[in-house]
Amino acid sequence: MTKFFEVQKRDGPARMGKLLLERQIDTPALITSNDYTSLGSVYGYSSLDKTRQTVEALRGQNKLTIGPYIPTALHNEPAIKLPQMEYEGTKGIVVNPFSEDLPEIADVYVLGKAGTLRNPKDLVKAVIGVRNRTHADTALYAPALATPANLALLVYLGIDLLDTTRVVADGLLGRYHTRDGIRNFCELSELLCRCENCQKMAIERKDKKLLIAHNIQKLEEELLSVREQIRSETIREYIERQVRVTPDQTVALRLLDQEHQYLEKRTPQHRRSTFFANCAESLKRAEVTRFADRVINRYKAPKSDVLLLLPCSARKPYSTSRSHRLFTEAIGSHRRYLHELILTSPLALVPRELEECYPAASYDVPVTGHWDREERAWLLKCLDSYLEKNKYARIVAHLEGELEDAIKEHGIEAVYTGGGTNGPSLGRLSAAVAEACHGATRVPDLRRLRYQAMADYYFGQGAGDALMAGNVLVRGREIQDENKRPLAAITPNGTLALSVAGAKRLKVLNAYIVTIGDFLPKGSLLAPGVIDADEQIRPGDEVIIMGEKAFGIGRAKMSGWEMVESRRGVAAELRHIKEM
Ligand SMILES: [Zn+2]
Prior knowledge:
Blueprint: E1 5-11, E2 14-20, E3 24-27, E4 29-30, E5 36-38, H1 48-57, E6 64-66, E7 90-95, E8 108-111, H2 120-133, E9 139-141, H3 151-157, E10 161-162, H4 165-172, E11 175-178, E12 181-184, H5 196-204, H6 208-231, H7 235-242, H8 247-258, H9 260-264, E13 275-276, H10 286-297, E14 306-311, H11 322-331, E15 338-344, E16 348-351, E17 363-364, H12 373-389, E18 394-397, H13 401-409, E19 415-416, H14 423-436, H15 446-459, H16 463-467, E20 473-475, E21 478-480, E22 486-490, E23 496-498, H17 500-506, E24 513-516, E25 524-526, E26 530-533, E27 542-546, E28 550-556, H18 560-565, E29 570-579
Helix pairs in contact: 2-8, 4-6, 5-6, 11-14
Bound molecules: zinc ion.
């Protein structure tokens, strides 16, 4: 609830924004003592009145004012509670990392004792705790914590403001920082950087000022990298690489991944970047669990007697790959009598109709043919839930190697063809499918099924039926009602864009709706105009906008809960809006 801070871009819990002080600070940022006045420990004043007078004397300044605080041991509650004080400008409040109390309303929260949060468990718990207890549109400052090696993790956890305190102090102690960690300057036989300071140090060595300047420069460079990663929506991939620097950072990421709700609430529906599933942590990503959850719980497979299990392909969407084109050819006209399910890591199951959805159409994973225990367990768990819900009379598995073994050993009753794309393999696929489809009922047209499935996937159970009710025509990438009015279109990034007529069909589901006040928005819908928003909405979601004077469609720029909490920022970009 602030006038002074606005989040402009999000990638998971990491955010970019602007803090409006004397200078505009683009976050994530390194701030200096020139940007704020800190009143320090309350024990530094002779009385509470004196403290209050000091706060009042600061009125009119254009800096962040960090209010007085009560020094407390890390895991303890403060001994006394301070009364609220009136601030004129940007208000900063020091919060106890492990307090259960809701802190008073402020623009910036300062993580108390942040510098001592070296234990990954404490760090993750503290940041998540404070973020959960404060509003979305407030900034979080963690003093004396950042190094070039950990800065990305800190920003990814949800911290907006950091400083150079720690690298300066380390410089005085002869510690040389790089993105790869800290080294003892005296023990380096060669400097690891070519910055101006290092070039000077290579000649005259031992100047603490140069060492500090180098450390600050490395921190600033890392900040630039992190900002670019958020901008290009690749921060998660960057984090998965960067945490390998120390076991403690890897632990922090794993602990963060256990905070599923914290991440899920902040993970966009869609990212521009390719999703790299490079390591074990990728399997835990919110995008992966969300995709699997939607396939199991939102999606409804078409009635089909035959299920065909296929492997994934490097090229996405799978249909455009050479192997899948060969499979389709081998299946031939039997395709109308079966349903295709692609088995893959880390997404587990991708029904053919959902292959264009994010991240199914844009992920990449190192393929060795080996399925490790965790991948295998995840795949089988998803497959069990899927087959529990969607019943088939016969299954054909055109899979090879360890993937075939995994399914076979799990006891899935199927015709196993051994997989493959050479002539004899495709012959076996063709024969198995012909046999299985004998006497099978016809499955609806795949082009129709795509819209049906994508509507369920993006808008929840029942959306497909609502959107496709009556005589709906498929015209290429668009569907139309019986009067040839467009209802929805599949966009190049695999989302479903609704028309006003399409949105009207879906509004009965009461999902993905943003309720606005008594006005007609234009261009962008700003957060203060939002009265209520569906909790399920994530950045990138298609949303239905409803108000007394307006009905329309837009793309969410923030999560539903953020729209309700925020007093600044764009909630959604509007596409069609009609006056009521
Ligand atoms: Zn250097």
